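Progress report, Aim 2. The chain analyzed during this reporting quarter is listed below.
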Amino acid sequence: MKTQLSTVKSADRVLDILELLADQPAGTAFSDLSAALQIPKSSLFPLLRNLVHRGYVVQAESGGVYQLGKQVQYLAAKLEAPPLLSLVAPFIEAAARELNETSAFYVRHGDQARVALAVNGSQTLRSTLTPGDEGPLYVLAAGRAILSVTRPDHRDAYLKFICPEAFTPNTKLDLSEVGQAVEESASSGFSYDYEEFSLGIICVARVVCYAGAPCGAVSFAIPSARFNEASRINICRVLRTTTAAIEVALSEAGYKV
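Predicted structure tokens for the chain:
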């Protein structure tokens, strides 16, 4: 004896609407939708209203036919393009092997820069990062890298309302100094955190941009005991080649922002 699957009527109706409109690219009138799907007009109207509000359905004109909206295309594109982290991971791993220092890929999460991928160095003295670790944009090198290519008005709004917290004695608390660090990052292409978030750890980062927007930042965390001008130059070299390779990979894969 088969067990009948319990379904939610309103969810089924939403899916029926989307499937019918997918088969009718020229659009379907309200009354035709109601008749074809056997949904009472009083029930169909609020479903369509919500779908239109969320961008999954559009109405050609006032009182006109209904068609699929761009939000459906957005979801489809997400399925077609490889996930961001699967594209980035090989380059983060290669960079970590080349320098034998902790390498991470950060993404913006609200007002935080969050570790999405991390490969820790194998040396005894090292920084250890785990996906999910995060810190404020204004203090992390990766956060400053992301801010450096953020729209100026959005960046200014962020810097205007933050209340800087001292994580170490080296943390910049003066907003003008934070802003200057971000500007220097924009000018040089590299961001630095000189023991501002963790004592004994210096971070250097570079943003990854695609389609004119930041999609993350690659960052190296190095014990200050191993950091000098020669290592800085080498780290910047690896950051430059790594971020460029990631941007090419995103383009070739047709990644959708």
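Strands lie at 57-59, 66-68, 102-109, 112-119, 134-136, 191-194, 201-210, 213-223. The chain has a mean pLDDT of 89. These observations will guide the mutagenesis work planned for the next reporting period.
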